[in-house]
Design goal:
Belongs to the PPR family. P subfamily. This protein has 24 helices and no strands. By secondary structure, it is mostly helical. It has a domain at about 370-520.
Amino acid sequence: MGRLKSLCDGGRLQEAVDMLLNAPLDAKRVKHFNLLMKTASTLAKYSEMYNLFIEMKRRGFIPNAGTYQTMLGGYAQIEDWSHRTKQIAQVHNVFENYRSWVTALKAEDPKSLHLTVGPYNPYFKILGATKQYEKIYDVYYDMDQDGPLSPDVKVLTGLFDALVETKREPGSTQEIRPQNISFAKVVWRNMTKKMEASPEFKLDSHLIRAVLRLFRSGSAADRIFALDVICRDNLGLAKPGETAPPPKVELTEYIVNQVIALCNNSNKFRLSIHFAQQLMDRPLKDGESSILTHYILEDVLYAYCNQETMGSMNEAERALNILDWMIRQNALQYNDNLAPRLITFSRVLEISWRGGDWGVATRTFDLMTGYKAADFADIPADVKRSTPQMERRSPGKNFLPTTIQMCHLVRTALNSGVVANMRQALRIFVHFGGERFFLQGALQNDTLPEVAQTRYLPFYAQTTAETVSGLVKAVLAAADTEQVAGKQEIEQWRNLMTAAGQSLRQATVPTPLLRRPVVEQSRLGTSAQLDREDMVIDSLMSQRTQVSPRRK
């Protein structure tokens, strides 16, 4: 066994196979074949793995639970099944062998410690990856609903994960087939019955995460079902005015991430904010860190942004409070997961722009860059302006604006309608590069998460040029501009407007036709309209009869 393991550890599979097959029959064991199969799967040699399975049976060895777990777990590593018809057939054959073996074992000894449902988990994963959803239904309905061969929490987690399509079907606007959602509700009800009958059967965070991930991609009614049945009844997250029962499953970062995504996908932006505030207000024990992260809170800021598009007031101030909380808790908890990123500041600046809240925009600018926006404010034209200085912070705590943040900043100034704010914005704009923000390559050297948004850079560059032109026109038309800006500064602004116009004339695609982020697109409607939609959904849900796609 030692020599065999050494060969496997070194990746010398063929030598190990030759050694085992040429060894005397009484020296061979099932565990030896399992070891070689594990090595073959690690090396992605699936044909060799299957051949070993056939060879061990041919030589009279009976595969055990480890054999089936190893083989199906190995096949589950395959990501692209498009040209693996042969392997798919092998998977089904191995699984049917497992079912025959475990059924016979149960008949012989119903209390055997070797009875296991472990192989179902990788099998469900493979069925999901190959979109064999009808097969998933059949396999589940063929399982015992109680006893050692009934689905446990791990198997159910794998089942729910398998029902989420990784790629959308052509022409489909949903990621989840309606039949999969209906089936998932049947499975959920069966789980509920099992929990009532068997107190030892308990949900865990992995299963809840999988269920939320599934339902958040369903229809509006499916998402409401998830908010009520899962978030309230199992996670203890109550809507405003509701009282939730004690949580059955402890919240984790990954669950909260799915809950916030569920709320946002449902256009329940106020609820997203409400849940986040509940978690922010929870007292922490000594040494405990918040389960909130910058990823989660950036999604909450996205909710604030959408609230602003629907005409809600003072969202920018509330968003700034989130940012302040993150910075404070990052310092108090020594929790880097709460450290704001460039995209975090972008979210707050975007909310400021929508509300024309220049005060929030400048305070966000201060927190982001380490500069003081006040250093760019109006002073008498005959007073020499000192050079703005950046507050030096620890590495990674100063973020200089890219085209995206600068676009939000200048739009906020223009939207505020106050000429003094517009002049202040122009000075900030010039200080950080001026005309370079009209160029569509201004983010090329960034290594921050916002690089993912470079596909929208043409939109932001052209929008910045249009906005700066508007700022300069408004500033030059103001009667008091010459009192607070010297001739050189005014000429600098005129040149900016000329450069902006030139960049727009050179653009190959008009700004309205450019690709842009979702939050830059059409409004969702007012909060009242969304409330009316909720009433319709609630009415539909009360009329629906939940049925499975097919029962046996």
